[in-house]
Amino acid sequence: MHQPALTALTGFDPELAGLVEAEAKRQHDKIRLIASENYVSTAVLEATGTVLTNKYSEGYAGRRYYEGQQFIDPIETLAVQRAKDVFGVDHANVQPYSGSPANLAVYLAFLQPGDTVMGMALPMGGHLTHGWSVSATGKWFRAVRYGVTKETGRVDLDEVRDLARAERPKLIFCGGTAIPRTIDFPAFAEIAREVGAVLVADIAHIAGLIAGGAHPSPVGHAQVISTTTHKTLRGPRGAMLMSDAEHAAALDKAVFPGLQGGPHNHTTAGIAVALKEAAAPGFRDYAHAIVANAKALAESLVERGFDLVSGGTDNHLILVDLESKGIAGKPAAKALDRAGIELNYNTVPFDPRKPFDPSGIRLGTAAITTRGLGVEQMPQLAQWIDDTVTAANAGDEAGIERIAAQISELLAGYPMPGWA
Asked: Is 395 one of the annotated binding-site residues?
């Protein structure tokens, strides 16, 4: 059952409680490989389910527009200080509701509509909010986009420099949503300085790896850092903006009153808990274990004939081009879900297929590492993925069901926070 127990909810709204219980069981019974997901601790669950959700707190600590902030102010101050300590930054804002609003605040802080922004193209691994055409950021600003080379699947920084010199962006994003390799923050910083742009490091996917020393930090290179607080950081669904002292006031003003009203205080508390966990010595081991699992899984997939974008991974994320396996990403992802392996279909660079029916799948190892799976389980996981793809191509539903039973049996030995 769900932990903490849903006693009051079950008594008042058993229909909804049943759905929550079913979701908790689903999370327990499946190998969760969605790169943007994780399991929060029971402490984070408790913090986000408190009476803090009752309180309005427009403004910042010591400068609120509502009374009754005697305990809210210390909670937010605690979260801010912990963020500054964990990441070594001058300034942190823990109020953004999620990653996309956080990035919108960056635009509001430093650009005017029509100004030029440069970011990684969405099909190449970037994020919608880095100036892609269907996003407000691509509609309200002049967006120029860099990508990866077809031969290597990696960013060519010489091409990025040439593009920046030609287009003179005021804002440059580095980072994205499907980048399996180390981001070269110093090289991006050099390019940004040359053209007079503000460099924004979007570390939403790798924040936990940076906190745990398993990926280089953008601090000292990027003036602004944007991140979600879930994914590898293993906190609640929220976001943070961090910066050097020079850019702090503009960011704070953009978050509130520029984009948001009152912060979600229960989320702020959950972020504070997650940051305390990230500061603990064991989190460093966890971050490095995520990368070790990803590398082991990537090697095992390559051994079974899978084509990985860039040939492998340096972080938690693996991007697989399934063209050589004779199946598209969407039917593969759906078959894998039936087999007890949860991931998402994903565009790969230079994908000839449409975004809603792409050639690839995206995998991440943060959640399974939280559950306690290690490198010794990665060959078996790769085999299950391969067997499921083979079964899907053959229409072998019985084979997919057998894999699901084997996965459920394995996971019974690995506890999940939030389910007992």
From this structure: no
DSSP letters spanning 353-379: S-TTS-SEEEEE-HHHHHHT--GGGHH
CB atoms within 10 A of CB 209: 27
Percent helix, strand and coil across the chain, each rounded to 5? 50, 15, 35
User: Please, which residues have CB within 8 angstroms of residue 256's CB and are 6 or more apart in sequence?
Assistant: 58, 59, 60, 95, 263
Residues carrying an active site annotation: 56, 58, 202, 228, 231, 237
Cβ proximity of 187 and 326 under 8 Å: no
Indicate the class that CATH gives domain 290-411: alpha beta
405-415 burial, b at 16+ Cβ within 10 Å, e below that, comes to: eebeebbeeee
Query: Can you spell out the DSSP letters for 135-159?
Result: SHHHHHSEEEEE---TTTSS--HHH
Q: Could you give the CA distance from residue 376 to residue 297 in angstroms, rounded to a whole number? A: 10
Specify the pairing of strand 224-228 against strand 31-32. unpaired
Per-residue pLDDT of the chain (420 residues; tens, 9 = 90+): 999 999 999 999 999 999 999 999 999 999 999 999 999 999 999 999 999 999 999 999 999 999 999 999 999 999 999 999 999 999 999 999 999 999 999 999 999 999 999 999 999 999 999 999 999 999 999 999 999 999 999 999 999 999 999 999 999 999 999 999 999 999 999 999 999 999 999 999 999 999 999 999 999 999 999 999 999 999 999 999 999 999 999 999 999 999 999 999 999 999 999 999 999 999 999 999 999 999 999 999 999 999 999 999 999 999 999 999 999 999 999 999 999 999 999 999 999 999 999 999 999 999 999 999 999 999 999 999 999 999 999 999 999 999 999 999 999 999 999 998
| CA–CA gap between residue 254 and residue 289 (Å, rounded) | 37
The CATH architecture assigned to 47-279 reads 3-Layer(aba) Sandwich (3.40)
The ranges assigned to domains in the chain are 47-279, 290-411
The response to whether 33 counts as a known ligand-binding position is: no
122 is in an annotated binding site: yes
Cα separation, 403 vs 387, whole angstroms: 8
127 is in an annotated binding site: yes
